[in-house]
Specification:
The protein has 450 residues and is an all-alpha fold. It is built from 19 helices and no strands.
Length: 450
């Protein structure tokens, strides 16, 4: 996000719009294979290590590395052609987009490789080093006025991370059964990742077809601000999820349902206020982070906060993804439907509403991909989710009322303050039990980590 903030503040919305569209294209393309290759590396290397077979781990990393490299090279060519001809940006911009796609593919594989070996501290260290190099080089590019090289610092950062982990000296050959298993897993994982995470990236790429570069910059800035907000709830779900899976594996279905209900209640109680406040203060956030030129992007940020809030309360996804085998297929099917529906709405509204049509299409797809798994798990496990559904609906009604009031008061700051205070008071009152449960869980979790 810091990369986009620097570009937006110094070069303005039009430059950020160009950057955002190329970044979105590369990020979308690597979902087709390299991102899933990273997941495959992490899973199958960890399995081999758990079996005590280091030779198999080395053979696995070699096989997945070759697979990811081939996929990344093909996708890099696709990116170059799209940027050069479809975007009309010229051959040099196309080469830069291809290099970005290739380095991003290497980054995704290398990250999965390091995770598979349990090198979490090393991963964090090289992330910091790569980010520092990228931002330092970007500062130099901006100061020198070399706008044609805006992608070069990012390419360098991803390449550093990838090269320092790439298994250049790996030897060994996997048996055909394991190779087929890895390829099958990678294919299904690609489908699921692309369907689940591709809609947001495609919304930016498609917005380029019917929005001005400045409007595209506003939308790109809003995406940069909205998506990190969901990482907090995802981190909590990652911490709480293993208990859910353990109870299912042990046959304790009652305990699993209790844990699932607790996860849903806690994530909704603690993280909905963050998204609500983001909606109330969207214009101020855009102004402070990106500058006065981006204040017009507040409308996109408000929609994206609502969309991302829905995808953040995904305890039902953890239930489907982490338990019986049919769960991952159901998730993939739901995500494919939401992707197609979101794209259809973008194609319908985009030519009429510009980037706003892309935002509405993404929000629709995000809601479908969140609500349907929620309903599936609610019915399958007979979850006591009427109260949490009531709290969610209350939050969205309060947000809608606040936005309507903003229009009547012409964005008065006093109105925003009043809405924020009122929401926090009402939310605290109706979520007392969930707050208490969350604090008890945090205390127990931290005590176990000591």
């Amino acid at each position: 996000m810091a990369y986009s903030i620097l570009v937006g503040r110094i070069l303005g919305p039009a430059a950020l719009g160009e950057l955002a569209s190329v970044l979105a294209l590369s990020s979308f393309l690597v979902l087709f294979w390299p991102s899933a290759g990273g997941n495959a590396a992490g899973k199958f290397i960890a399995m081999a290590r758990g079996e005590g077979d280091l030779n198999s781990a080395r053979s696995t990393q070699r096989f997945v590395a070759v697979s990811s490299a081939i996929g990344g090279a093909i996708l890099a060519v696709v990116a170059s052609l799209v940027v050069s001809f479809q975007f009309g940006a010229g051959w040099f911009a196309g080469l830069m987009a291809g290099a970005l796609t290739l380095s991003l593919a290497g980054y995704n594989f290398s990250r999965g490789l390091r995770v598979g070996y349990g090198h979490f501290r090393t991963t964090a260290l090289w992330d910091i080093i790569a980010s520092t190099v990228s931002l330092t080089l970007l500062t130099g590019v901006l100061v020198a006025g070399w706008s044609a090289l805006l992608l070069a610092p990012l390419i360098t950062g991803y390449a550093i991370f990838a090269i320092t982990a790439w298994p250049f000296g790996s030897v060994g050959r996997l048996d055909s059964v394991r190779r087929k298993e890895i390829l099958r897993f990678t294919a299904w994982s690609s489908l699921n990742i692309m369907a689940a995470g591709g809609l947001l990236q495609l919304s930016i790429v498609l917005a380029r077809q019917w929005a001005s570069t400045a409007e595209l910059g506003f939308y790109g800035a809003a995406v940069q601000l909205a998506t990190p907000a969901s990482m907090l709830s995802s981190a909590m779900l990652t911490a709480m999820g293993p208990t859910l899976v353990t109870r299912y594996a042990s046959g304790d279905l009652t305990g699993m349902r209790q844990e699932l209900a607790r996860i849903m209640n806690i994530t909704v109680a603690f993280f909905m206020p963050l998204f609500a406040i983001g909606v109330f203060w969207a214009q101020a956030v855009m102004f402070v982070v990106f500058g006065p030129d981006f204040a017009a992007g507040a409308v996109y940020l408000g929609l994206l906060f609502i969309a991302v809030s829905a995808t953040s309360f995904n305890a039902a996804n953890a239930r489907l993804n982490g338990t019986e085998a049919r769960g991952i297929r159901e998730l993939a099917a739901v995500n494919v439907v939401s992707l197609v529906l979101g794209l259809a709405i973008m194609a319908w509204l985009g030519p009429i509403l510009g980037a706003f049509g892309s935002a509405v299409g993404y929000m629709t797809g995000a809601l479908v991909s969140s609500v349907v798994p929620f309903l599936i798990v609610w019915r399958r496990d007979s979850m006591p989710w009427f109260p949490v559904l009531g709290r969610l609906l209350t939050a969205y009604v309060l947000m809608a009322g606040a936005l309507f009031g903003q229009k009547l008061t012409d964005g008065s700051q006093w109105w925003n303050v009043a809405c924020t205070v009122a929401f926090i008071l009402i939310w605290s009152l109706i979520n007392r039990a969930s707050f208490s449960s969350g604090l008890r869980w945090a205390k127990t979790f931290l005590h176990r980590r000591r």
